[in-house]
Each structure stands twice: as C-alpha cells, then as structure tokens.
Amino acid sequence: MESLFMSSINGATFARNVQLWAAVGFLTVSSTVTMSAPYFLGKVIDTIYSGSTDTEMMTASLTSLCLMLTGVFLCGGAANAARVYLMDVSGQQIVRNLRASVFSSILRQEVAFFDRNRTGELINRLSADTTVVGRSITDNLSDGLRAVAQAAAGVSMMFYVSPNLANFVLLIVPPMVLFAIIYGRYLRTIAKRTQDALAQTTQLAEERISNVRTVRAFGKELSEVNMYIQKANHVLTLARKEAVLRAGFFGVTGLSGNLMILSVLYKGGLLMASQHMTVGELSSFLMYTFWVGISIAGLSSFYSELMKGFGAGSRLWELLDRKPEFSLDGQLEFCDVSFAYPTRKETSIFHNLSFSVPAGTIMAVVGSSGSGKSTLVSLLLRLYDPDAGIITIDGHDIRNLNPCWLRSHIGTVSQEPVLFSCSVRDNIAYGALDPGAVTTEDIYRAARVANAYDFIQAFPQGFDTVVGEKGVLLSGGQKQRIAIARALLKVSKKTYCFTNEFLVQEALERLMEGRTVMIIAHRLSTIKNADHVAVLDQQRVAECGPPTELLGNRQGLFRKLMEKQAFLQEEQQRALR
Ligand SMILES: Nc1ncnc2c1ncn2[C@@H]1O[C@H](COP(=O)(O)OP(=O)(O)OP(=O)(O)O)[C@@H](O)[C@H]1O
C-alpha cells in the first residue's frame, strides 16, 4: 500500500516536472518568435524602402516575406497559449500542495500552539496568505518568466542591430535596478504587515461570530463592530501605504520607458542622418525598445507580486517549518481501554483496561500466553486503535499525534530482532530517522553502548560484514546487541522503549536509562529490576504495584504466576540432569 502511495506521488511529481519543462519549452518558442518579429519587420520596411522600381518583383518578395512571417507568428501564438495553460495548471498544483502542507502542519502542532494562535488567524493564513502566495506563483510566474526571457532577448537584439545605440539607451538600466531593489524591500515588509493585520481582523470576526450569544447577552454588538472597524481601518492604512509605494514605482518605470523611446528616436535620428543606420534598422530597434519597455513593466509588476508573495509567504514558511513542541516527560497512561482485533471482533482482548507508567520508570508487563502483552505495544504504536478508552502520553491522546512522529519516539526491540541482509553498519544506521545522515562515529558510539563494538570489529570485514538473511550469520546475543545499537540511534532521550527479555541484560539496561520503559517480562530477575509490575488477566490489569509488594501477597495472581514459573524451571533443570 505504502509503495503504491509513494509511486503515485512520484508519478505526480514526474508529471508536474514534465509539465513545467514543456511550459519552459513553449516559452522559449513563443519568446523567440516574438523577439525575432521586430527584426523581420525591419526587413519588410527595408524592402518597402529599397527604392526598387520593378513593382512585380517587389510585390513577390513582399508577399513571400509576409506569408513566411504569418506562419511563424501563428506558431508563436499557439506556443504562447500552451505556455499560459501549462504554467497556470502547474502553479495551481503548487498552491494546492502548499495548502495541504500548511493544513497538515497546523494539525500536527501541539495543543498549546492553538492556545497561542487563534483559529481565525490560522484560517486566514490558510486562505488569504495562500491566495496571495498562489497569485504570486500562478498569474505571475508565467508572465514574469516571459518578461525575463523577452527583456534578455530584446536587449541582445538591440546590441545586434546597433551596439552604439544600445549602449546609449541602456545606461538607464542600473539606476532602475537599484530603485527596484529598494522598492521591493519596502513592499515586502508592508505586505507582511498587511497580512498580519488581516489575520488579526479575521481572528476577531471568527471569535465574535462563533460566540455571538455571549456578545448579545452583554449587549456588546456596537462596541464589537467598532473594534472590527478599527482593525479593518488598520488594514486600510497599510493598503494605502502599499498603493502609494506601487504608484510611485509604476510612475517611475513608465516615465523611464518613455524616456528610453525618446532617446532612441533622438540618437537614432542622428545615426540615420550620418548614414550609420537604415530606416528598417531604426524601426527594428525602436520595436525592440518597446518590447524591452513592456517587458520591464511586466517585470516590475512580477517583482511587486513576488515581493508581496514573499511577505505573505514568510508566515506560511514559519508554519510549515514549525516542529510541534512537546516537552516529553514520558508519563504513559491506558484509560479504560477496550479492544478486539478487527478480524476477530467476537474475541475481546481488553475490557476497560487501565494502568499508568510514570515518566522515567520501568513497568514489567506479565501475564499468561495470549493475555495481550504484545497487543499493548501494538496499540501504543497505533498499529490498531482501541475500540473504547484512550491512551495518552503526557496527557496527549495519541490519536491526536502524528503517527510517524509518535513512532519515531517509541523504540521497540523484540527478543528475536529482525536484521536485514546488508552490512552491520547499514543495519545499525537503519534505526535513525535519516540513515543517510548518520556518521560512522554515531554508529561506533551506539555499538559501544550496546557492547557490540568489540565483536563487530573482530569480524574480518568489521562493520562492513554482511549479516546474511535475517541475521542468520550471527548468534542470538549478537543479533540482540546490534538491534539495541539500532534502537539507540532511533530513540531520543525521552522516548518509550518496549522490549522483550534479553540475553544481553547489561546492554538493555543502558538503553533503558532515563526512559519510560514497558518490558514484556518472564524471568524473575528482570521483573525484580522493574519499578512496577502489571499483571494481565481476564482482559484487564488484575494487579499492579512494585514487584516486592506483589510477591508478598501469597494469594495474589503474580505470586502464583511466579511460583508456577519457578516450578516449571525446576522441572526443566531436573529433566536436563
Ligand atoms: N493480528 C491479530 N489478529 C487477530 N488476533 C490476534 C492478532 N494478534 C494477536 N491476536 C490474538 O490476540 C491475543 C493476544 O495476543 P498477544 O500476542 O498480545 O498476547 P501475548 O500476551 O503477547 O502472548 P505471548 O506471551 O504468547 O507472546 C491472542 O489470543 C492472539 O491470538
């Protein structure tokens, strides 16, 4: 299922990449056509002004030139339409993904986050901010890229047609770029403040509307409306500032465009008078100047929208990057949990089972075979959800936590660990969230703590030894030590570790240090080391308490279970003798 999901994601990413590349291809075609037009139109003008007296020849060459150009323009038009469509679709997909990621990031946050950030504000982020960022990506990106391509092509063609005139005209560009950078900075700050003010306004409206009964009961309608108007006025003030800034910028860019045209006519007229330019060349140059002017105007609006997008986006990036803050102490609680496996609904495994494991303590879970010890672990890992009751970690219902995050904080080590048929190094690194980022030093450290370093180094190929399928080339104890090293790389300081009993007790003890541990135990020696024991019987926790206390109760279930086990062990030893 997971691989199917991954492949569909990869498929979607691939399709999007192909779409984007196709759009860039169409952009290149349409821009090439657009930017070659002035050059050929100049040729048409030169043909008209060639001074030829042979009307028939002149008509023929003019007709063929115009027909050829019509064909080229048709291709350009089609490519332009395809580009706009593909860019828009890709942009919309990016916005959809952005919305989904922001929403999922919001839902992942801890409960305290929602105390600090009100619902209205978050909804505003999700709707208004993503719309601004979306507009900056969709409408804008496509036109912006075209403007960049056409400005670059236009400038190159200006140099091609007349380097002399191009040098003169383009002196205006560096001061314009500086001006645009300063403008962009201001616009970005103002856009961010506008989005913040808008979020506060929405938050006020959301809170008052959803609590309208309270507002009415206190007769506060008028004062609430006034408060809303105040907030809306603040948004308006910021929007006015933005309008003034944009007006100034567009005024200056429009003026500089006109000045460029005027200077081309002035200098070009002088060059024509001194026979350094033909009328066709001047016309081409003029058209290129127009194109560059239009592209620069397009670029300035692209830049404005982009800066607004960045401004609005900065809050979104913060939300996206935010890791949920949980100060995990490790208190673990099962409250009235009832559960039956979905495939065997008629056989209840737990009925109103309750017990808690205080932070940093070891809880040994005992019970006869089939009493549900491993099922407890499955429920905690959310491999299954209880039919009734809740399981909490530090008071957080685990159903409200991201399952991946939850599992990344729970280390499980089983009695017969599964190792993969790759090197010891890769098996240990497998435990880390990002195995690629694990250093050799990390692996050695984990192996030392698990008391595995010496025997691994003693292998002829050391950490590169391939362990064979399921680790068949290793002894039981060696496998367990490697599994402990793997778990050490996984679990952070405050995680829960669920283990079975081990041959290699000393390595296990190091793993348990400072963590909340639930251990499925059989041997008395293991149980004695635990802080508490929970005895599972008849679908619930029949007894729970410190091991010595439970052993002291002669009629208790735990005492009977231990006696039975001691008796069985004696029997086994006698049989061996
Ligand atoms: N995936 C499953 N689907 C249906 N029933 C299951 C499933 N896994 C376990 N069971 C049943 O649930 C009950 C509890 O199983 P569980 O493995 O939790 O017991 P346990 O106490 O860990 O046993 P043991 O000490 O023998 O390992 C058993 O009756 C078992 O047959």
UniProtKB/TrEMBL annotation:
Q: What is this protein called?
A: ATP-binding cassette, sub-family B (MDR/TAP), member 10
| Record-linked InterPro entries | AAA+_ATPase, ABC1_TM_dom, ABC1_TM_sf, ABC_transporter-like_ATP-bd, ABC_transporter-like_CS, P-loop_NTPase, Type_1_exporter
How does it sit in the bilayer? Multi-pass membrane protein
Coiled coil regions in record: none
The record lists the lineage as: Eukaryota, Metazoa, Chordata, Craniata, Vertebrata
Alphabetic keyword roster:
ATP-binding, Membrane, Nucleotide-binding, Transmembrane, Transmembrane helix
Its subcellular locations are: Membrane
Q: Name the SMART domains on file.
A: AAA (SM00382)
